[in-house]
Design a protein that fits this description.
With 81 residues, the protein is an alpha+beta fold. The protein has a domain at 36-81. The protein has helices at 2-16, 23-35, 65-70; strands spanning 38-41, 47-48, 61-64, 74-75. The strands form two sheets. Strands 1-3 form a two-stranded antiparallel ribbon. A two-stranded parallel sheet has the order 2-4. The longest helix is centred in the first third of the chain and has 15 residues, at 2-16.
């Protein structure tokens, strides 16, 4: 209950004092999170996958979708990340 009250007060303060909150910074963080989708590659494969893909039985190397694409990996046709 105390956590909820503190969260409410924080949200209220951010709304009252826009100097401390930047909508452009929030937008940038959301855009970055969307671009930096976590995907997985394997030691020997050429595709990137979702964590639940059955093609990740033997190796599972965490990376970002943008980094995997820069490295020449393409999307798995089974899990379609």
């Amino acid at each position: 209950m105390l956590k909820k009250i503190l969260l409410f007060i924080c949200i209220l303060c951010l709304g009252l004092f826009p100097v401390f909150s930047s909508s452009s910074a929030t937008t940038t963080m959301v855009e970055t999170a969307a671009v930096e989708q976590v995907v997985y590659i394997t030691k020997t494969g050429k595709r990137y996958h979702k964590s639940s893909c059955h093609h990740l039985k033997r190796s599972k190397i965490k990376t970002t979708k943008s980094q995997a694409q820069k490295s020449g990996y393409t999307a798995c046709t089974v899990c379609k990340p």
